[in-house]
Amino acid sequence: LEPSQIERPFRSTTDRFPLAPGAEISIEVDPRVTREDHVAALADCGFNRISLGVEDTEPATQAAIHRIQPFEQTRALTLAARARGIERVSFDLIYGLPHQTEASFD
């Protein structure tokens, strides 16, 4: 989705169903396609938690699952979210993927 496509349905929904004060507003994103302007739109909508679909950080595992995502890409998106005031950032990881070991997952 483009940033405007995020804002429009969010605002139309919250106009009809207002959020409770202090509500946690969370979203999961794919760091490979999420840009800083997406993060800005999410922050402007009031999202205060973002979960990045990382899966695994090891290049061999990423290649095996066809999800190449350099560490710097994830880091840059994390910093962009925090710079926009989204301080609650989490990472979705999957264990049991090809080439993973306890040491590599740790």
Itemize the secondary structure elements and their pairings.
Blueprint: H1 3-16, E1 26-29, H2 36-45, E2 49-55, H3 59-64, H4 71-83, E3 88-93, H5 102-105
How would you describe the overall organization of this protein?
With 106 residues, the protein is α/β, with parallel strands linked by helices. 44% of the residues lie in helices and 16% in strands. The protein has helices at residues 3-16, 36-45, 59-64, 71-83, 102-105, and strands at residues 26-29, 49-55, 88-93. Helix 2 links the parallel strand 1 (26-29) and strand 2.
Short account of what is shown:
This protein has 106 residues and is an alpha/beta fold. It has helices spanning 3-16, 36-45, 59-64, 71-83, 102-105; strands at 26-29, 49-55, 88-93. The protein starts with a helix and ends with a helix.
**Class from helix and strand fractions:** alpha/beta
The average pLDDT is 95
Integer-rounded radius of gyration = 16 Å
Poorly predicted segments? none
Strand order of the largest sheet: 1-2-3
Which percent bin holds the helix content?
Answer: 40-55%
Oligomer: single chain
Instruction: Please give the number of β-strands.
Output: 3
Biggest β-sheet description: 3 strands, parallel
State the shape.
Answer: elongated
Taken as a percent bin, the fraction of beta residues is 15-25%
Topology as a string of helices (H) and strands (E): HEHEHHEH
End-to-end distance: 33 Å
Number of helices: 5
